[in-house]
Amino acid sequence: MDCVxxxxxxxxxxxxxxxxxxxxLQYLRGPLxxxxxxEGCAEGDCGACTVVVLDAQAPGGPRWRAVNSCLLLVPLxxxxxxxxxxxxxxxxxxxxLHPVQQALVDALGSQCGYCTPGVVMSxxxxxxxxxLDADWKLDDQMCGNLCRCTGYRPIREATREVAGAxxxxxxxxxxxxxxxxxxxxxxxxxxxxxxxxFWIPTSWPALFEIMATHPGYRFIQGATDLxxxxxxxxxxxxxxxxxxxxxxxxxxxxxxxxWSVGAGVKLADLEDATDxxxxxLSRMLRFFGSRQIKNSATVGGNVCNASPxxxxxxxxLALDATFIARGSTQERSIAADDFFTGYxxxxxxxxxVLARVExxxxxxxxxxxxYKVSKRREMDISAVAAALRVEVNDSNIITDARFVYGxxxxxxxxxxxxxxxxxxxxxxxxxxxxxxxxxASDFTPMSDHRGSAWYRSTVAANxxxxxxxxxxxxxxxRLSDRPSGTVLGGSPA
Length: 493
What we know:
Blueprint (H helix, E strand, L loop, with lengths): L3 E5 L2 E5 L8 H6 L20 E6 L7 E6 L12 E3 L15 H8 L9 H12 L7 H8 L9 H11 L7 H6 L9 E7 L2 E7 L3 H10 L4 E3 L5 H8 L5 E4 L9 E4 L2 E5 L4 H8 L4 H8 L4 H6 L2 H7 L6 H7 L3 E5 L4 E5 H4 E3 L2 E2 L6 E8 L5 E8 L10 E9 L5 E9 L6 E2 L1 H7 L6 H14 L10 H21 L20
Parallel strand pairs: 1-5, 7-9, 8-9
Antiparallel strand pairs: 1-2, 3-4, 3-5, 6-7, 10-11, 11-16, 12-13, 12-16, 14-15, 17-18, 18-19, 19-20
């Protein structure tokens, strides 16, 4: 079987007889003795473990991505280049700081220093991004890095100073190199808990052969969820299949009004594509998670996880999307309303893979917005999420409605009673008051630490009221660029 090979700070590293569920953070701090990368939360929240990875298959060409090394399993780095804070010096023995590090020093952006390496590496991505052209993007770039000492103002000032600078460092040189194709991998190890295998197939036939001969497999993409099973529960996975070697899954195409989004598309790339073209989707992605999470997480991973609080699902259902499943011999289409069959279950059959999601852009008659309500603005799980769409004709009558909620039931679900109250009624405040009243009979939400049943029902109704106000002036409003205390409407608290 193969060995796992990748480059760290310009030097090749080869793994043999190391468990495939070893995280990159563990490998950096252990065998490679690179302790600059820290462990804080071990779940992708604090950013202390941030490193940058070169994504050679990114849209528009290679780009450096800040990622959480505490979640990434080492085989996912096969064939890739990684830089840690120790690798920013141009040559061994050179004590001169990288421009990013110097900017942080000049802004007095470090005190205890524990978070600083991760802050620096998120700033390194910002340094090599050409698109940080709005204040909210600076906030989004750094929201996944916690600092309990300095506060964010000097960190933000330093980030603004280096954003898009693209100095002629080793990372810039790597961006100019011709990208190599993703290499296939068949890696295994033996431990006291039993054997483990990890595959990265690069063709559909190879994928389906592995699936057929190892039925106990689990798929892995960005590991932002499955990685927690390793770091928090110590789960021993016997067979893991990464889908990152299938280039087709990274395709995002728009032909006319039809969107086709591959299941392997990174959420950061989907956010870029929808920022102006599809505001209802970009609104949900703004506060989906940190930059590090969005740089790793994929459309298919979020959808197929089938969590009732998965933030993509309500928007895709409101778009009346079609989910394309691929098997070994054919593809089939699954309607949005039929895809989620129960708590964390989908209509995908054994031996099938979600290949892509397709939908049409909203029509000119549509009024459409999405909302995420959580206790924190950034880096939090939804208590309630909603994607609300109505079609309004020239007589101001609602001809179609899709009100989809997450966090209100075992699956992302439509509020059928509220939809019925809307269709055939005028687009006016009284109609949405009736829709809000109907929500009570549509759902029986649960109470948990994110919110009581009463809270969820009240929020769901209020979102319909707020939706009417939001879309009365602008049919598909974008979130404001201003800092805000609540996601609702993107307005200051």
